[in-house]
Structures are given as C-alpha cells and as structure tokens.
Design brief:
about 130 residues; alpha+beta; four-stranded antiparallel β-sheet; 3 helices; about 20% helix; elongated; AKAP_28
C-alpha cells in the first residue's frame, strides 16, 4: 500500500528500516517459528501490560536500523480465553525531521503476547508481523 503523500510503499519503508527483512520473510512462513532471540521473556505468572511494553522495547533495540527512525509502542487491546490471554501491541516507526515534524510515512509492526493461564511458570509466547 502506498503512502498518499510520498508514494512510498509500506514494504519500501520497512526495507529502508530493516534491510534484509523482506528476503528473510520470503524464506520463512508468515508466522515466525521458534523463540525470539536476545530477550529473556517474562514468565506468564509475572506478566503485566507494562512489562510486555518494556520487553518489546528491549527486543526492537536489537534490530539494526538508522538513528533517524523513531518509534512508539502502543497497547491495542487484550483478549481473554479459557486457556490463555492475548495482549496486542503496535510499534509505529517514523522519520520526522525539523523540516517535516509530522512524518510523511510510517511503518508498523504488530506484536501479540500470549500468556498461558496454566502452567504459569513458563515464558510468554511472543509473535510479531509486519
């Protein structure tokens, strides 16, 4: 999808921000299997929405991106089921400048943290997508 003001596609914005992601995405399924590296995720028993936000921040700090990219993490919603609870977050990236403080394009990464109700000593399950 192209940004109306700049004509840049979301994919082009993400490729600028995270080189190599598109190639890696093509080699893997849409849902990224296995644990996410570089972060020791909290146990289900100790999870809070704020801890989830902090751990997402910690995780995205491991990504290679230019210093001009700023981001914010938003908590979207939560869904409770019989076996687990799902917490949804959005990380929005943009490149504002002093000439254009309102970003001309943004890119979003969506995270879901799944908290199992039993057993509570295992780590949360984290999924993300572009």
């Amino acid at each position: 999808m192209a940004n109306e003001e700049t004509g840049h596609s979301d994919k082009a914005v993400m490729n600028d921000m995270l080189p190599g992601v598109e190639q890696n995405q093509e080699k893997k399924s849409a849902s990224l299997p296995g644990p996410i590296p570089n972060v020791s995720w909290v146990s289900c028993a100790d999870f809070t929405v704020d801890i989830g936000t902090r751990q997402i921040e910690e995780f995205i700090q491991t990504w290679t991106r230019g210093d001009h990219w700023l981001h914010c993490v938003d908590t979207l919603n939560s869904e409770c089921g019989n076996e687990n609870a799902r917490y949804n977050y959005r990380v929005r990236f943009s490149t504002p400048s002093s000439e254009k403080p309102i970003p001309q394009a943004t890119a979003s990464v969506f995270f879901t943290i799944v908290v199992s109700l039993e057993p509570s000593d295992k780590p949360v399950d984290v999924k993300y997508g572009f």
